[in-house]
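Researcher: Quick sanity check before group meeting.
Model: Go ahead. Protein one:
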Amino acid sequence: MGQPIFILGEDTERQSGKGAQKNNIAAGKAVGDTVRTTLGPKGMDKMLVDSVGDIVVTNDGVTILDEMEIEHPAAKMMVEVAKTQEEQVGDGTTTAVVIGSELLKKAEDLLDQDIHPTVITRGFNLAAEKALEHLEDIGEEVDFEKNRDLLKKIAMTAITGKSAEKAYRKYAELAVKAIESIMDKSEGEVNIDKDDVKIEKNEGDGISSSKLIEGIIIDKEMVHADMPKKIKDAKIALVNTALEVDETETNAEIQISSPDQLESFLDQEEKMLKKMVEKIVDSGADIVFCQKGIDDIAQHYLAKKGIAAVRRVKSDDMERLARATEAKIVNSLDDLDERDLGEAGSIEEKKEGDKMIYVQDCKSPRSVSLLLTGGTEHVVDEAERSMNDALDCIITALKSGSIVAGGGSVEQELSNRLKKYAQSESGREQLAIRAFAEALEVIPRTLAENTGLDPVDALVEIRSAHEEGKKNHGLDVEKGKVVDMRKAGVIEPLGIKKQAIQSASEAAEMILRIDDVVSAGQLSGGDGGGGPPGGGMPGGGMPPGAMGGL
């Protein structure tokens, strides 16, 4: 027979064939099972505790997966589905992961029937392409300028089920107003930079005390106690230079041999600082925001002139102030004049938890702030995640211009259409397309499970409604009935569904195409530690710690 040839090192472990496939599928399914119970308005929350005892309480899919120490490589690929969904459209992360997980589950059944992975991935690819085509047909194009209420409904749908749900109407209104303030629509294109909406958090008051500031909140305070704390009709200077005497760039030594020389030196420094202040006074500014430091002597002279000052303002906040107040950021006080100043109806230093400066009542702000409040740190953090989801959904809807009904109606309609499409295909790909169609039903089924309803009865009722042509019928979890979700006001942007199906399908196809997992010491960080990724177990089971510790 001859001597066997070894091409891999002794510290290398390898899994191949069905064992590797089963292992990867099990890891992907485990990720889906982790977040599945958080889906929908009645989904449960997860408490994540790290090694030092810090706690995160959330039902946001990408936050849960990001906080967990997931080690298995296939599981990490499923986490990437959630992260991609978050980066591209901002919401629908749980939906994408749950669909991807269910696709792997259906694929496992086909593998057990000796259907080749290549056939399965080809069928999944055909089904995904057809699903995206049908989504365009299911989607409804709308003019949001004439249907502003639809934006509020989209935001309410995104917030429902999160801790901010009890104030979801107010949060939706705040989100819509914020986006309307910063939106730029020119030549038929919608341009929105989410960074123009600054979110500040404050613990103490209830969630319902959150508010929109037509301007910017700066997490700073006035630099001098004698400076005005409230300014009406303020003229604002933005300065990107220190109000301090510059130090020499090279090593220098000044020799002072008498008290008179010292006094003369100090007088000269004071004159330089006084001259800087005079330039600000001459410009007509009421307040100066400085990105760098302000000398104590300069603070004193500014206070005497009745001019407020804020120092070490972050560059992002300086840019937001410029967009909100129409001020120009100057790099030299010699360039500062009245034309560079911005305007705000009022500027006030307030103490709400920490001291903050409110630059508000701007005429046409292109940057605004949302102050989110809550009783505890965990409540405020989850409120911020809720608001971010609402903002992202509004932006996605405005950019795509199309909406779909929620409550599992889209997934069920696609499932019914793909089952019919499967019949038109010959060969074993037909089985994969049908499996893809059945996998999409995991969304309405999971919504029913998380609501406490019988998933079988709910699924039968939804299927029946869609077979009768009621494409917008889904599960109203509040009433526990199958109703027209479009009329019920449960609406989502089309872009979220497209991204979820596309990401889930591509991840599942990639995982199914892997039939060999090789792990060597050099590949695991160069520390000589062998073992397959995640520390694979014999028999293709989940490796120890594959889902990571919290």
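Researcher: Fine. The other one?
Model: Protein two, sequence then structure:
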Amino acid sequence: MTDQNVQPIFILPEGTQRSTGKTAQKNNIMAAKMVAETVRTTLGPKGMDKMIVDSLGDVTVTNDGVTILEEMQIEHPSAKMIVEVAKTQEDEVGDGTTTAVVLAGELLKNAEELLEKEVHPTVVARGYRIAADKAQEILDEIAEPVTEKNTDILKKIAMTAMTGKGAESSKELLSELAVKAVKQVLDKEEDVISFDKENIKLEKKVGGAVYQSELVTGLVIDKERVHAGMPRFVKDAKIALIDSAIEIKNTEIEAKIQINDPNQMQAFLDQEESMLKKMVEKVAESGATVVFCQKGVDDMAQHFLAKHGIYVARRVKKSDMEALARATGAKVVTNLDDLSGKDLGYAGVVEEQKIGDEEMTYVRECKNPKAVTILVRGGTEHVVAEVTRAVEDAIGDVTAALKIGKVVAGGGAPEVELAKGLRKYANKLSGREQLAVNAFADAMEVIPTTLAENAGIDPIDIMTELKAAHDKGTRWAGIDVFTGKIVDAWKKGVLEPLKIKTQAVSSASEVAEMILRIDDVIAGSSKGGEGGMPQMPPGGGMGGMGGMPGM
């Protein structure tokens, strides 16, 4: 009996695309490697920047890994998983996003070579897991302790974070600002450090130069005083934070008021005026000289407040109100009748200043502010945005160092030391996992190799020298990308928080394991039977990454 009459059985709807086995793995690994290749050239002090133009024509110029990947709007499903690695790194540490992505790409590339030698994917994944656990131990052993008293080390960490970004020209000044800001808002209870990055506000202002950026021990608020008759400058300010409108409320339901006589009209207006006067008296009685109001302030009330010489800003954002409360020690009052002297906060100076073409309110010289502002200046919008990203990285690095209390040197030193330790460990293993651990160790060396490549140094020569230095016991031997020589990165002041490395290694290995275990990709059809999955174009270009809009 022949099978000619047997109908093929379709278990998936029409238009579904499916790739299985080796093809699926190859495609997934290729897509992930492409993401890593995209950001690889931005790694290190000599890394280049990317210009990304979105569909609206907005331009972003940056070498911050996570910003690049988010702006690129990547479509391919396994490439998206690599983007997630960058996002996790950004949320957890705030820096090292490129490192994490490049590591993930290299882990997959090395795994691919093992798969071609017929090593089973689950064996590779298991080997990677063993190696990742061991890597965490090794990194922990080689790291050096740091506390908030080591200002010098913290400054170097901040400077390392900014090197190679748009902020490099003023990294001395900016790193000092970042360290001061973090130390000011840190909370320490029984040696446990807690930090909320919302407490450091980064206010961007175009105009001036980067070196004119400053740290305000208090806040800079994007609001002006509401009335020209109010003082521009208030010394020893007593600050009231009011979360209710200083105006007459409209009735909840529509109400008609009938007036038969012009005098009644006048009485009505007088009544309204005296109610507003009472409200203003209430504020003045509390002793407040500055008021930040979250809602509106009536024109009449503005006039009365100006007569009392009180500085008022209205429609202040909720987040700013909370930050003001932390900075000045004031309490946010929701009912004007409850306002008393006890609710007021203090600032040495509150003043209105013109920056660029906008008026802003400075609240500075607070006694022990738990919220501060770094005002970032720069010649153009793109410069300011990139400097702000660099300062964010620096703040992230300094806090990460303090939270865990450990730092390592940079310049590719920890990665080479890690690779050395992992190879030693691999020799103790039997079976095929040993191959995977060695592949993991080789992948770690992609960081110093890339640093060298981006600086135009021959990677083979420098890696040979670097390994020789580590074998002689120079733990912090790293690459000086400016001279092309091997230096002691610790003495050179190239420092990074341990958390950058541990987080990058763990998230990169986790995502690599996950992608390795996928052997079947089923992409559902969209309505109308069109294939919904971004296809791998022939020639290996990544689907959904080609043709950036506006380019």
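Researcher: One line on it for the slide.
Model: Residues 217 and 301 are 30 Å apart (CA to CA).
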